Amino acid sequence: MIRAENLHKTYRNGRKDVRAVDGVSIEIKKAKATAIIGPSGAGKSTLLHLLGGLDKPTSGRVFVDGKDIYGLSDKERAGLRNVRIGFVFQFYHLLPEFTALENVMLPALIRSRSILNTQYSIRDMAGELLQSVGLKGRASHRPGELSGGESQRVAIARALINEPEILLCDEPTGNLDSKNSESIYELLFQVKAESGTALVIVTHDDAVSKKSDHVIRIKDGRVVQ
After folding, report:
1. At 40, which helix (H) or strand (E)?
2. Distance CA 95, CA 90 (A)
3. pLDDT digits (tens, 9 = 90+) for 65-83
4. Which residue of 61, 112, 118, 201 sits 20 to 30 Å from the alpha carbon of 81, by its own alpha carbon?
5. Domains in the chain, CATH or no CATH each
């Protein structure tokens, strides 16, 4: 599904080069859950962004079903992200002027599809997704009226609106308490089980590794396990 070959990402920090990702080669398999685990500053988030086409590597390649995504134009890569990859971030990134329902609808509207399938409109699908993540009664609320746990559930529903094959999650519970964290992880693994979506979670939480099919441990930009 996703294959990374000898990925490097180097940032310039003053006079010093920082190797955020240093020669990583990994594979993310279809319909499997993969946990990327390591300490703060290990390069986990940078690696996830490279896998999802959000940031260009200094060198190395990323393939999605055999296609080198960094050989695509910026527009083509953005289209691939919109259609095939869903993202869940630590800080939700909901638009404050939109309702929960409208936030969920947005990726499908960007995709310019008025109908996702023969039965449902974008609005219908977004409503069903909110219901599936336990927010049936919160569709008309704006982000400022939602709790952190509710906001992350909206973000998960938004990531699923285009029915992605890959769901990339960057510290999805980093801003939540332990109770909400547990429920978000349960929801993510439920999505993976029911939809067959490949799930990749960047986290500090070793408990996630016990639920995952594969575990990749990162330290100083390198895979150590």
Report:
1. none
2. 15
3. 888 999 999 999 988 888 8
4. 118
5. 2-223 (3.40.50.300)
Cβ atoms within 10 Å, residue 69:
22
Q: What are phi and psi of 198, to 5 degrees?
A: -70, 130
> Rounded to whole angstroms, how far apart are CA atoms 209 and 215?
6
Which structure tokens are listed for 199?
């799930």
The number of C-alpha atoms within 13 Å of 69 and in the hemisphere containing its C-beta is: 26
Question: How many other C-beta atoms can be found within 10 angstroms of the C-beta atom of residue 197?
Answer: 23
SS3 130: helix
Task: With a cut of 80, say whether residue 119 has pLDDT above it.
Answer: no
pTM for the predicted model, two decimal places? 0.89
Taking residue 19's Cβ as centre, other Cβ atoms within 10 Å add up to: 16
Quickly list H helices, the chain: 44-51, 74-84, 100-110, 122-132, 148-160, 178-195, 206-211
DSSP H or E run through 217: strand 214-219
DSSP state of 209: H
DSSP state of 145: G
pLDDT in tens, 152-203: 999 999 999 998 999 999 998 888 888 888 899 999 999 999 999 999 999 8
